[in-house]
């Protein structure tokens, strides 16, 4: 895949001296879904705003499809669709007119068939003649996506698009995102629902305190940094972890009925065989054994905590 968005050594310093972005380097591949993860105040929205040309950069260079966001602003902006965090819509306008207006802003010719298809994809078609003010919060977010897609962008930014949206609408939105990817749209999303990023993203970028900590293929990241936990339920609760098992760094549950052992999936030896043998030697009898793979959220929290040190 070719690079469609390139961010090179971008810094953003506000008038008061606060440095929101600290030399960001990021390349986004055409047709991929990349999840930009980070805690509140990490710089996610600032980075998106600079790429979209809403906020100017202090230094550095941003290009979209080879065009500089500064010198070719109008051409670049035509390629980009943005769904912001905040819901800002014309309350007394109808859904279809609101979407038509967004298309017209970019000088696109009328194409009612395309707009109807967008509304159908987002389950908004039956609401096309309803006033925006009559819609639920989740439906208004769908209208934001429809407006962002109205001018047929090649790059779509979704900044917390499912915030405050119920589970059903959230699932429908991600189905829509997957469909857009199949159609060749490049998608950059931020979300607090990390399980969603785990489900649909191709790559993960982690940002904290204005710096990119990591950019990696999701599956490779989880294979490299993922750990597994084995939970051993005991026939008879233990008061403490036997001293002869100290090397395993076992965690005893509050009621003493289970032991948890964490191990690296990439290690040549997991230590499980030795642990089970030593458990028996220590006089502990197992009732059941369960394993659990660490999630993207576990990895994300670990990266952010490490980066904060």
What are the SSEs and their pairings?
Layout: E1 3-13, E2 19-29, E3 33-37, H1 44-51, E4 59-64, E5 67-68, H2 73-79, E6 80-83, H3 95-105, H4 112-121, H5 137-149, E7 155-159, H6 167-182, E8 186-190, H7 194-200, E9 203-208, E10 211-217, H8 218-225, E11 227-234, E12 251-252, E13 258-264, H9 272-281, E14 286-293, H10 296-308
Parallel strand pairs: 3-8, 3-9, 6-7, 7-8
Antiparallel strand pairs: 1-2, 1-4, 4-5, 9-10, 11-13, 11-14, 12-13
Describe the structure.
With 309 residues, this protein is α/β, with parallel strands linked by helices. It folds into two domains: 3-222, 3-Layer(aba) Sandwich (Rossmann fold); 227-293, Alpha-Beta Plaits. Helix content is 33%, strand content 28%. It has ten helices and 14 strands. It has helices at 44-51, 73-79, 95-105, 112-121, 137-149, 167-182, 194-200, 218-225, 272-281, 296-308, and strands at residues 3-13, 19-29, 33-37, 59-64, 67-68, 80-83, 155-159, 186-190, 203-208, 211-217, 227-234, 251-252, 258-264, 286-293. The protein is elongated, with a radius of gyration of 24 Å. The mean pLDDT is 86.
SS element count, helices: 10
Mean pLDDT: 86
Biggest sheet descriptor: 6 strands, mixed
Instruction: Please tell me the total number of domains.
Output: 2
Strand composition percent: 25-35%
The residue ranges in which pLDDT falls below 50 over 5 or more consecutive positions are: none
Main sheet: strand order? 6-7-8-3-9-10
Rg over C-alpha atoms, rounded to the nearest angstrom: 24 Å
The CATH class of the largest domain is: Alpha Beta
Structural class of the secondary elements? alpha/beta
In CATH, the homologous superfamily of the largest domain goes by the name P-loop containing nucleotide triphosphate hydrolases
Number of strands: 14
User: What's the shape?
Assistant: elongated
CA(first)-CA(last) distance? 35 Å
Q: Write down the CATH topology of the largest domain.
A: Rossmann fold
Give the ordered list of helices and strands.
EEEHEEHEHHHEHEHEEHEEEHEH
Proportion in helices: 25-40%
- So, CATH architecture of the largest domain? 3-Layer(aba) Sandwich
């Amino acid at each position: 895949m070719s690079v469609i968005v390139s961010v090179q050594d971008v810094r953003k310093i506000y008038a008061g001296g606060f440095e929101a972005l600290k030399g960001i380097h990021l390349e986004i591949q055409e047709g991929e879904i990349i999840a930009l993860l980070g805690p509140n105040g990490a710089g996610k929205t600032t980075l998106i705003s600079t790429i979209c040309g809403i906020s100017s950069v202090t230094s550095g260079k941003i290009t979209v499809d080879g065009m500089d966001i500064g010198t070719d602003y109008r051409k670049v902006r035509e390629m980009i669709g943005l769904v912001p965090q905040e819901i800002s819509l014309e309350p007394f306008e109808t859904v279809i007119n609101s979407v038509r207006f967004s298309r017209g802003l970019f000088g696109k010719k009328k194409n009612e068939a395309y707009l109807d298809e967008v509304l159908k994809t987002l389950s908004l078609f039956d609401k096309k003649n309803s006033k925006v003010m009559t819609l639920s919060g989740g439906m208004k977010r769908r209208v934001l996506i429809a407006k962002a897609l109205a001018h047929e962008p090649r790059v779509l930014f979704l900044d917390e698009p499912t915030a405050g949206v119920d589970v059903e609408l959230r699932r429908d939105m991600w189905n829509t995102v997957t469909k857009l990817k199949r159609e060749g749209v490049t998608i950059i999303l931020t979300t607090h629902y990390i399980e969603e990023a785990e489900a649909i993203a191709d790559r993960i970028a982690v940002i904290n305190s204005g710096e990119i900590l990591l950019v990696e293929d999701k599956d490779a990241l989880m294979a490299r940094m993922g750990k597994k936990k084995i939970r051993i339920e005991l026939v008879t609760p233990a008061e403490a972890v036997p001293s002869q098992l100290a090397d395993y760094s076992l965690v005893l549950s509050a009621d003493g009925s289970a032991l948890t052992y964490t191990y690296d999936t990439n290690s040549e030896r997991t230590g499980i065989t030795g642990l089970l043998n030593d458990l028996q030697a220590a006089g502990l009898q197992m009732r059941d054994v369960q394993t659990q793979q660490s999630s993207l959220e576990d990895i994300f929290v670990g990266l952010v905590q490490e980066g904060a040190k």
